[in-house]
């Protein structure tokens, strides 16, 4: 389990661990160079999570979950057309939330490793709630880490307002069944920024998106961005803040993949 922006994601402990599905890259999820976009990755993570839920007792015992943070490590880009193989497993948990890993590998050698912090939600209160005994037993069988804690990674305040702030108009299709902006919609705005900074994703890279509070239908979102560099070198990191008024609802960081990320994930 990764505990900071620099930590590699944990390797798969056993080749058959967890839940697996395969499908082809969808053309609407690719850019003009046929690269699988980040919002497409987010959609696939939601799809395998849903299928995993339906294939287990969670669909009746623990049916409602929300994501607090997603880490996406693009080790080798995935392009269209390609066949994908997704595997989802629990890497750590506590009584109310889990760290769920998903590996996305392709027939042509593409590899994307991900980890998401999922919170179990009460249908009646909308608040975090204890995972059922059956659910805990199922998840605990996949990992020895049973004391997962939440720690924000992207808590830095947003910079002052600037002329480069981007208004992000919401569409009806951006809203999910909880009346929140869908996870993939945020990453569509991230992709809008990446059009101007292709060098950031021309190498192995890590994308982190952290949700501080939900954004609701009808709210006015402004995206504030900043490029960062180390030691006077070319900019290597893109930071984004999704603002409603002065409040940061969601924060994003695009940065080079930690040097040992591929080795740890591929063991």
Describe the structure.
With 267 residues, the chain is an alpha+beta fold. A 10-stranded antiparallel sheet has the order 1-3-4-5-2-7-10-9-8-6. The longest helix is centred in the N-terminal third of the chain and has 17 residues, at 38-54. It is globular and about 50 Å long. The protein has one domain (19-266): Roll (Thiol Ester Dehydrase, Chain A), CATH 3.10.129. Helices cover 18% and strands 32% of the residues. The chain has helices at residues 38-54, 58-61, 133-140, 183-194, 261-266; strands at 19-24, 65-76, 83-93, 97-106, 111-120, 166-168, 205-211, 221-228, 237-244, 247-256.
Keywords:
10 strands, Thiol Ester Dehydrase, Chain A, globular, alpha+beta, 267 residues, single chain, ten-stranded antiparallel beta sheet
Count structural domains: 1
The CATH architecture term is: Roll
Q: What is the strand tally?
A: 10
- Strand coverage percent: 25-35%
> What structural class results from the helix and strand content?
alpha+beta
- Please describe the biggest sheet, giving its number of strands, its sense, and whether it closes into a barrel: 10 strands, antiparallel
């Amino acid at each position: 389990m990764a505990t900071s922006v620099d930590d590699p994601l944990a390797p798969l402990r056993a080749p058959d661990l967890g839940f697996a599905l395969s499908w082809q890259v969808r053309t609407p999820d690719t850019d003009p160079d046929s690269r699988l976009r980040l919002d497409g990755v987010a959609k696939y993570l939601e799809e395998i999570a849903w299928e995993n839920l339906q294939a287990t007792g969670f669909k009746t015992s623990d049916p409602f979950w929300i994501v607090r943070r997603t880490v996406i490590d693009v080790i080798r880009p995935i392009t269209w057309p390609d066949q994908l193989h997704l595997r989802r497993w629990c890497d750590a948990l506590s009584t109310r939330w889990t760290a769920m890993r998903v590996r996305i590998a392709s027939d042509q050698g593409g590899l994307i490793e991900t980890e998401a912090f999922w919170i179990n939600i009460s249908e009646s209160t909308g608040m975090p709630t204890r995972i059922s005994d059956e659910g805990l037993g199922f998840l605990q069988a996949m990992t020895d880490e049973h004391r997962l804690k939440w720690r924000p990674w992207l808590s830095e305040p947003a910079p002052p307002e600037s002329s480069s702030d981007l208004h992000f108009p919401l569409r009806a299709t951006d809203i999910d069944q909880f009346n929140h902006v869908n996870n993939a919609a945020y990453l569509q705005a991230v992709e809008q920024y990446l059009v101007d900074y292709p060098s950031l994703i021309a190498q192995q890279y890590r994308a982190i998106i952290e949700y501080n509070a939900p954004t609701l239908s009808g709210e006015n979102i402004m995206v504030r961005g900043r490029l960062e560099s180390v030691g006077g070198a070319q900019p290597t990191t893109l930071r984004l803040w999704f603002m409603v008024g002065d409040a940061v609802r969601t924060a994003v960081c695009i940065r080079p993949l930690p040097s040992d990320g591929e080795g740890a994930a591929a063991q």
